[in-house]
Amino acid sequence: MSNTPSTPAPQSPDFIDLPADPPVWPKVIGIISIVFGSLGLVCGGCGLAVMPFMGQLMGNVAEGQDLPPAYQPNLATMAYAGVGLLHAILLLIAGAVTVARKPVGRPLHLVYAALGIPLAIGGLFIQWKLQQENIAWAAQADPNNPFAQQFNSPQSRMGNMLGMAFGAAMGLGYPLFLLVWFGLVKRKGSDMGQAAEVL
Q: 106, 83, 100: which is closest to 178 by C-alpha?
């Protein structure tokens, strides 16, 4: 009798137990969050940097004429923009750890979404209030003032309404999606796939 060990029979490819491919969605959502967070960081940072000098810049354009409230320094608006900047940084971090399939990406996105909805509503209210102040200012300003003519025009008012609608869609759409996705659909860290690791 031969002592040579028997060679196992080759296994059919249909029965090879291969690890499942990790889901694609964490990287997709993570990249979207990185893009939105980066845009918010760049745009918000530039806007916050320009705000203190807006009155001076517009004053040069208006050649000494009165400026509407929209172009006057406003500490409340600057503070709100600063909070928005921190909010964008939070989304950027949440996107990065989600691309890396870290389970902590889920609670970070939920925190971002929970903060984002009231921030978006507050931003829309500030924008609406500022528009009303601009319209009231334009009604009493010199008719020859170019800013007064701008705020009194129907095109300007329509543009403001469209801008607010776009802002509402952008400010509320993604946070609401994240609340549903991470709050109702993907509720476990293991949903991110086998590559998920604890941060």
A: 106
Q: What is the pTM of this model?
A: 0.77
Alpha-carbon gap, residue 179 to 169, rounded angstroms: 15
Q: Which of 137, 139, 135 is nearest to 157 (CA)?
A: 135
Q: What is the per-residue pLDDT across 71-105, written as a single tens digit (0 to 9) for each?
A: 776 787 888 889 999 999 999 999 999 999 999 99
With left for phi above 0 and alpha for psi between -120 and 50, is residue 66 left, alpha or beta? beta
Q: What single-letter amino acid sits at 64?
A: G
- pLDDT score recorded for residue 190: 75
Q: Residues near 181 by Cβ (< 8 Å), separated by ≥ 6?
A: 29, 109
Q: Residue 6: left (phi > 0), alpha (psi -120 to 50), or beta?
A: beta
Rg (Cα) of the chain, in Å, rounded?
27
Report the alpha-carbon distance of residue 32 to residue 95 in Å, rounded: 7
Residue 31, CA atoms < 13 Å, CB-side half-sphere: 4
Residue 194, token pair as written in the block: 């086998």
> Which of 56-60, 100-104, 162-166 is least confident?
56-60
CA–CA separation, 65 vs 58, rounded Å?
Answer: 10
Question: Residues 9-44, buried b or exposed e (16+ Cβ, 10 A)?
Answer: eeeeeeeeeeeeeebeebbebbebbbebbeebbeeb
Residues near 23 by Cβ (< 8 Å), separated by ≥ 6? 191, 192, 193
